[in-house]
């Protein structure tokens, strides 16, 4: 592939977009005028035969199609030629209802526990983490500098004591730390203003991809919601308009940092952080999930395997140069990933914990997200 082919398409300025729009309008009007002229010429011909009637019928069909498309598109945004025909200027007169239905559609079709669960199950987060951990190319990201003296230290440590310390740490220390307030504080520290802007832009891009991925179900839903007498082209125009609105909103967010949507999104994030830190329902649910994960971890032998793997690798590489001292830790974590990738039961428990937490968030904030989309 050439360098030119690899380059992304250049974004057009507003002036260039306006010129392109005017060019397309002029082209469409020119084609309509052309077929109209052809139709009139064919009608006024003194002699008619099969070929002239064929050209006349083709021109007539093109005229009717062009006028139908013009009326369908115009009726969405204004009254054609200023005539207040019923069921025209649909978007200006019904934008609130359209926004509300769009929000409800997202909420009922995408922001549901079942939809989220199906998506998470298809992702298999725990399996992906395990796969990433056991990938050799990631080893340098998994290990820090380990001094040569660690091998001697681990030899002096009794294995049973280590097992006991690990269990006590998990049972006593970690069990006493409330999860959701810590998570809330973590989100508060990382989701700064700039990060939030990147996050909402990512959400808008994902919404655009979802609209394209679920194009057929959305078109079917629109057809079910519109009156039976609505022609199919108008249903198609509604879907196209929704896609365009999402794309335009994303483009506007990229250049207009004072867009009110940023403030609404900030309020939603602030409310989530506040609930994580102070909501009794959130804290109680978080503790329940943490307890289940700790019980599953302590009931198995994963902590023991972790210790034995790290210990054996450190001893095996005792005395190696500093450039290779991090290798035991890297390989140890890689083997943890290998073990987790084959421990389907542990993967299921981890995935279930993640799904439960996200379902709770969706149930708690699904309405707010739907309202945010509606406005």
Overview features:
375 residues; 80% helix; mainly alpha; 18 helices; 2 domains
Short description:
This protein folds into two domains: 16-88, no CATH class; 102-374, no CATH class.
Secondary structure: helix percent: over 70%
Number of individual domains: 2
The termini sit apart by 43 Å
Strand content: under 5%
- The helix/strand order is HHHHHHHHHHHHHHHHHH
Rg, nearest Å:
31 Å
Number of helical segments?
Answer: 18
Report the uncertain regions. Answer: 1-9
Largest sheet: none
Number of separate strands: 0
Assign the structural class, choosing from mainly alpha, mainly beta, alpha/beta, alpha+beta, or little secondary structure: mainly alpha
Report on this model:
The protein has 18 helices and no strands. It is mostly helical and 375 residues long. The protein folds into two domains: 16-88, no CATH class; 102-374, no CATH class. Mean pLDDT is 75; it is low at 1-9. Helices cover 80% and strands 0% of the residues.
Q: Would you spell out the secondary-structure blueprint of this structure?
A:
Elements: H1 3-6, H2 14-44, H3 50-77, H4 90-109, H5 113-123, H6 125-133, H7 139-142, H8 150-156, H9 159-176, H10 179-190, H11 193-213, H12 215-225, H13 232-255, H14 260-278, H15 280-299, H16 302-316, H17 327-342, H18 344-374
Helix pairs in contact: 2-3, 3-13, 4-18, 5-18, 6-17, 8-16, 9-15, 9-16, 10-14, 11-13, 11-14, 12-13, 14-18, 15-18, 16-17
């Amino acid at each position: 592939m050439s360098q030119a082919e690899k380059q992304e398409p250049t974004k057009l300025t507003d002036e260039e977009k306006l010129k392109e729009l005017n060019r397309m309008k002029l082209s469409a009007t020119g084609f309509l005028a052309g077929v109209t002229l052809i139709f009139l010429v064919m009608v006024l011909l003194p002699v008619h035969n099969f070929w002239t009637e064929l050209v006349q019928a083709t021109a007539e069909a093109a005229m009717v199609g062009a006028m139908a498309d013009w009326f369908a598109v115009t009726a969405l945004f204004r009254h054609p030629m200023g005539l207040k025909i019923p069921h025209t200027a649909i978007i200006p007169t019904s934008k609130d209802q359209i926004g509300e239905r769009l929000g409800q559609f997202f909420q009922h079709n995408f922001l549901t526990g079942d939809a989220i669960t199906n998506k998470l199950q298809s992702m298999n987060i725990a399996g992906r983490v395990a796969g990433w951990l056991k990938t050799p190319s990631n080893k340098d990201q998994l290990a820090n500098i380990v001094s040569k003296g660690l091998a001697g230290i681990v030899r002096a440590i009794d294995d049973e004591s280590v097992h006991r310390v690990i269990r006590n740490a998990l049972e006593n220390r970690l069990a006493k730390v409330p999860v959701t307030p810590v998570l809330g504080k973590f989100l508060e520290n990382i989701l700064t203003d700039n990060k939030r802007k990147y996050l909402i832009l990512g959400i808008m891009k994902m919404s655009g991809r979802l609209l394209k991925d679920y194009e057929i179900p959305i078109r079917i839903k629109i057809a079910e919601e519109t009156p039976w007498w609505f022609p199919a082209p108008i249903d198609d125009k509604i879907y196209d308009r929704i896609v365009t609105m999402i794309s335009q909103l994303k483009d506007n967010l990229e250049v207009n940092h004072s867009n009110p949507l940023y403030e609404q999104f900030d309020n939603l994030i602030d409310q989530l952080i506040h609930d994580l830190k102070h909501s009794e329902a959130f804290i109680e649910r978080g503790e329940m999930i943490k307890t289940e994960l700790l019980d599953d971890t302590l009931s198995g032998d994963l902590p023991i395997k972790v210790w034995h793997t790290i210990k054996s690798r450190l001893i095996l590489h005792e005395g190696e140069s500093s450039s290779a001292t991090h290798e035991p830790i890297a390989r140890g974590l890689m083997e943890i990933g290998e073990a987790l990738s084959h421990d389907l039961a542990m993967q299921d428990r981890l995935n279930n914990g993640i799904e439960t937490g996200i379902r709770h968030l969706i149930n708690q904030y699904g309405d707010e997200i739907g309202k945010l989309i509606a406005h």
